[in-house]
Structures are given as C-alpha cells and as structure tokens.
Design brief:
It contains 14 helices and 14 strands. It is of the alpha/beta class and about 400 residues long.
C-alpha cells in the first residue's frame, strides 16, 4: 500500500457490498451528497460520519456500518463540505474553529429531511483532514408518549415559572426529549402562548405542530444572535411566556436563565451533566467564588425540574431511554435553602428517590421488563466499577 493513500477496511468477497450505497460513484461530487444522505436515512441511520481517508459510516441503532466501499479522500471531502456548508468552510477550519449548522434536503414541496451537522478538522494519516458528523432529525418532534416518558415527568413539565433542565451526555437524546416536551406544550388545551427558542443549531422545527393558542419563534445561534446569553436578554424584551435555551454552557447563560426564571418566565434548557446532584454542583461551580453564594441560592429558588436521560442498547434492537429525575417542590426548595450550597449534592442524592426516580430505579424497571441486558442494569445500578467486579465474580464462579 502506497504511503498517504486511503486504506479501505472492506474486503471483496468478505464484506457484503449490498450494505454499501449501490449508487456509489468513483468520485464524490456535490450532486452525489443529497442522494447518498437520503439512502442512509432510508436504512434507519441516526448518524452519518464522513472522515478523510475512511469509508463513510452510518450508525444504525447504535452500531456503526460502512456506507461506502471506497475511502473518502481530500477531493471527495472538498466537494462534500462545499455542498453542506460552502466554499468558505475550509478557511474557517484552517483558522482553528469547528462549524455547527443544520442541513436540509427538500425532496418535494412538503417533505424535507433535516440534519444537525458538526464539521471539525482532524489529523488523518499524518496530515490535516476533516470529520463531518451528521445527526438525522425527524421531520416533526415525537410525542412524550412515543418516547415513553414517565407520567411524573409529564405532570411536572409545566410549572408556572422557573427553570426546567434536561441533562445527559452527548447523544443521550436531550434535544429529542426537550422537543417532545415543547410539542406537548404547543398542543395543550390552552396552548403555550408566545414561546421563543434559542438553539445552536435549530434541530427540530414546529411548523407541523398546530395550535391556535401558541406562537413559536426559533432563533439560531450564532446565525441570528451571537450567544445563548444574548438570546435570553433578547427574549426578555419580547414578552414571551416560555423561553428555550439550547444549552446552558457557561456562567453568563446560566445567570441569564436564572434571571429570566426569577422574572416570571418559564425557561427550558439542557446541560451536559449526568444526575440531579451533579447538575446542581456543575451549575453552582460555574460561578466565581465572590458571587457563588448569591447565584446558588437564586438557582435553587428558580429550579423546578431536572431530568437526566441516557440511552442504552435495547434487547431486540434499538435503544432504551433510562431517566433520573426530581421535581423541586416548594418543600424541597425550602429545605435546600436552609442548607449551605456545599451540602446540596449529598442531600439531593438522598431526596431523589422520594421526589422523583434514580437512574438505578429506572435501570431496574427496564431490566425487569426485559427491555435491557443485565450488564447494563448492573452498570447503572451499581456503577462501572461495581458492575465490573460483579461480572468478574460471576466468571470466576463459572
């Protein structure tokens, strides 16, 4: 094999070429991108990854499959990235920035397929390369029922005001759960009033969700406004009932979300944390020591619901959502405010079973219902170390 040439991991006569795109060209041009993406979607791909010097991979129910026989080289990648973003993408990547955007394919006047896209520069075979990750987005948000969301979460989903947080690791379905909750608000008997969203990028649209008592306006960061914090400040000048902030990722955004909750708005957002206690710890620690006490107590005064979600492989295919959640009732908030904020994480771990559900409870219910394998139950019930120790013991006993 010549140095620098792309290496194909697929072998003729060994790998089933029927699993790769039948229309694969000798060279990717811009005109090939949309048909290829639509073919991946037809195979139930949830994610599609283009990477320099590798075959294109599609992820189907959590498993990666090669979608092209040939590896993608620099010329292919240039055509693909130009189609998805534009010719200036290469200059942006060379400047040390990644690119987040949404991409849409209109198959006819009424049908569109949307993707959430990240483009990042990488090292490939010792040279600069690119990875493009595309998440397939449903044409309309799912319903809470379709996601199997617990009745307790649904009951506490719409407080009068305050802060509702959806948390979890990357790829855990936070945005999907949040979109289902927003759909439920729009379709409710009295609607949701004026709802403003600030997202980077916009993943789900609500054009197909109709209500005479709901008005939804979606703003993309940084296309329409520079930051999430600027989005919240913008929202406060537009008299909304509900504000959705795509991600509370820094202290400015968290502070702005808290302020909005304190001024009578209902605010929804996502955080990259796992667990109710960890979410509160992360949000409090984002503030400097001089303002931490004041911000911590403001946060607790506005907190109404935290839902942590993760996805695990489901027996028979697909993925099963496990959720830890806790409703912050007036009783809970009063109790927490009587303690120093350093005590909150430990206290919350004790309170979650009473005012919500732990991840261990969720995993046990899924396991007992025959939805997930025992090893995933052990992983979430006892933690990675305990699960590994249990597995080792069982192997030794055998």
């Amino acid at each position: 094999m010549e140095a620098g040439r792309p290496v194909s991991l697929l072998k003729k006569g060994i790998d089933d070429l029927k699993l790769t795109w039948p229309g694969e060209p000798d060279r990717f041009l811009e005109a090939h991108v949309d048909p290829f993406l639509l073919w991946c979607v037809s195979r139930n791909a949830s994610d599609i990854t283009f990477q320099t010097n590798r075959s294109v991979y599609s992820e189907i129910y959590g498993v990666l499959y090669p979608a092209t026989y040939r590896s993608i080289d620099g010329a292919d990648m240039a055509a693909i990235i130009t189609r998805i973003y534009g010719a200036e993408a290469l200059a942006i990547l060379a400047g040390g920035s990644d690119i987040d955007l949404s991409y849409e394919i209109m198959t006819d006047r009424f049908t569109r397929t949307r993707f959430r896209v990240n483009i990042t520069a990488i090292l490939a075979s010792g040279r600069d390369g690119i990875q493009i990750t595309m998440r397939v987005l449903p044409q309309s948000p799912p319903t809470m029922k379709q996601l199997g969301v617990e009745e307790d979460i649904i009951k506490n989903w719409r407080p009068r005001q305050g802060l509702v947080l959806i948390t979890g690791p990357t790829g855990s379905g936070k945005s999907t759960l949040l979109a289902a909750g927003i759909r439920m608000l729009i379709e409710s008997l009295h609607g949701c009033g004026k709802l403003l969203t600030y997202e980077a990028p916009i993943e789900f649209t609500y054009d197909s969700v109709m209500s005479r008592r709901s008005l939804v306006a979606q703003t993309e960061i940084p296309r329409h406004l520079p930051t999430f914090a600027a989005g919240v400040r913008n929202a406060l000048r537009r008299k909304p009932e509900i504000i959705l902030v795509g991600e509370a990722r820094d202290k400015e955004t968290i502070a702005a979300a808290i302020e909005a909750g304190q001024t009578g708005h209902l605010v929804y957002s996502t955080v990259h944390t796992t667990g109710v206690a960890a979410t509160i710890r992360r949000m409090v620690s984002s503030f400097d020591g001089s303002e931490r006490t004041e911000r911590a107590f403001s946060l607790m005064e506005t907190m109404r619901l935290i839902v942590t979600q993760t996805l695990v492989p489901k027996i028979g295919g697909g993925r099963q959502a496990l959720r830890e959640y806790m409703a912050f009732t007036e009783e809970v908030r009063e109790h927490m405010l009587s303690l120093h904020f350093d005590q909150w994480p430990a206290e919350l771990m004790k309170m979650v079973p009473k005012y919500g559900k732990t991840m261990e409870q969720s995993a046990r219910e899924a396991y007992e219902a025959g939805l997930i394998d025992r090893r995933y139950y052990l992983l979430y019930a006892h933690g990675t170390k305990a699960a590994a120790e249990q597995e080792d013991k069982e192997k030794h006993d055998e």
